């Protein structure tokens, strides 16, 4: 059914398509290439393109040639249990398919796979002459860590200035941050609305909104702000009318404690919602905990960037820190969003998460929350097919008495 | 269980100091028992009592938007006598005397000058300019609990009780980590919701969930970012103590959640060293073989 929400989804998807290899290669310079999220407000204000090779790889797994790309990735010599997003990225790199960037900025976050990709990028011989800068992300979340990482981001700006011969326009950075704060507030507002029972609209719009706001070339532009405003206003209207998702009779609300990856949303999650009324309320990427960037001074701005990077970027939050934070987030989400169950997809690349399975199971048992561990690959549907995932989840909901 | 005692003393001293300096402070004394508190509360408290979400247009006031200043502190002790059981302290304006929604710019400036220093005016001026914050107050919340039987092991369950969810009618806490960012609905304010109500609700929730609690005090700060910053400083230190408690509690369960990745202190260092030696030998042999 075409409605405002499907129109918004189409708009975001169009922009998200820009994250695949060809549009990324066509980025207008100067181009910064990274192995993960770089604090986005910086390149936007600096007026340069930022391309995240991990994302390009991840988006490769959504292409019709995904299986072939993954298999070619294995041939590059990265470990067979390495995350497939990284395998595809390694293949793109080693096969010479990525345009030579003007500079490379990498960091050691947030997973071992991304760190490996960073090492490959920095050691890639044909790019020996490309200026490189590496940031060190501490695996901790406190003021000292935010300050420490904030300083590194500040040094990254100096590095960018040296490479390009341009100067950062600090007023522009401020302007970008104001827009960014506005966008995060709207995303948080949408997150609030998802607490309504029944869930008023496709919860996956939160993930799309976050990706649209954070990763695409439209990020931090008024276009995205307008998109978010429309999304929030339309959703508020549905809450007022007490309406749920069109065509869905909501019976179960669950947390998917991982990324949705490239295939689960359109297959398993869509089917579960339609056929069983089981709604995926939340996943890694859409769980928003942002605090606004503090614009009082340059130092506070960069410390805010540091905090956002280390603690509030969804992947870093879940992968970089303690099991305690991970478990606490699960409890918080379950309680606040009235989830009936926790699904641990246990993506094979997520060694950090997978090492916590017993802890999460114990936690859920203690709190009487039904919990299912899958053990799938969010980028490669051959590992555990959508049909198998669907069947396992259906059986789980049945035996837990949820449907 | 005395690790937080120093901060209980500091928070109490801070309140006394502000009172002595003539800051606007309101004290309310509640009875100790939950059933007595329940007799005199204008909203419902309990699971599912806050229906759904509070929309922007139904919001009377937002508390603790991080741009305004926001901080949440939870402290506890095994010396219940350290606390004045049932006391609610409000430093700054109350929800119902905010009236921010209905005020003109000039009126807001006047209110600002009534309850604090020049910073309040600056704060309120910025409130007026920022559309998102016109209905917003800075917000600090301090919850102090005392119980002879409370120990470090109670930390997680006390912390979990802070996830209020839908338990307070007309009040929703937005998902947030160290901050507390919440909304009060217009309907609740019509029923008389103010900080005394919120304090009562928190006492009902905590005392019901934890019978070990023998005394409880709640403090709210709504003055300005500077006062919240003082709390934030405390909060940073308190967080460090809490992290240590959490670490120890996980150790009891058999997990080391923050293993220091320092080779010199790792028990497995000899194994790693052996492997490294074997690899070195292998590489040496390979390079001699390859000429
Ligand atoms: S392991 Fe997770 S965080 Fe790392 S690249 Fe894969 S999906 Fe991303």
Any overview of this molecule?
The complex is a heterodimer of chains A (403) and B (291). With 403 residues, chain A is of the alpha/beta class. Helices cover 55% and strands 9% of the residues of chain A. Chain A has a domain at 20-170: 3-Layer(aba) Sandwich (Rossmann fold). Chain A has helices spanning 4-17, 21-25, 41-46, 53-60, 66-75, 84-94, 112-123, 143-164, 170-193, 204-214, 222-241, 265-276, 298-312, 314-320, 323-336, 351-354, 357-367, 386-399; strands spanning 31-34, 49-52, 103-107, 132-135, 252-256, 278-283, 341-344, 371-373. Chain B has a 5-stranded mixed β-sheet with strand order 1-4-9-6-3, sandwiched between helices. A 4-stranded mixed β-sheet of chain B has the order 5-2-8-7. The radius of gyration of chain B is 25 Å and the shape is elongated. Chain B starts with a helix and ends with a helix. Mean pLDDT of chain B is 83; it is low at 99-118 and 125-134. Residues 54, 83, 85-86, 110-111, 113-114, 259, 315, 319, 349-350 of chain A line the site of iron/sulfur cluster (SF4).
Helix content of chain A: 40-55%
Determine the N-to-C terminus distance of chain A: 25 Å
Q: Oligomerization state of this entry?
A: heterodimer
Q: Any guess at the CATH architecture of the largest domain in chain B?
A: 2-Layer Sandwich
The sequence of SSEs of chain B as H and E is: HEHEEEHHEEHEEHHEHH
Contiguous helical run count of chain A: 18
Radius of gyration of chain A: 21 Å
Distance between the termini of chain B: 67 Å
Structural class of chain A: alpha/beta
In total, the number of domains of chain B comes to 2
> Mean pLDDT across all residues of chain A, rounded?
93
What's the pLDDT, averaged over the residues of chain B? 83
The ordered string of helix (H) and strand (E) elements of chain A is HHEHEHHHEHEHHHHEHEHHHEHHEH
Strand order of the largest sheet of chain A: 2-1-3-4
Largest interface: A-B, 34 and 30 residues
Strand content of chain A: 5-15%
- Classified by CATH, the class of the largest domain in chain B is Alpha Beta
Number of beta strands of chain A: 8
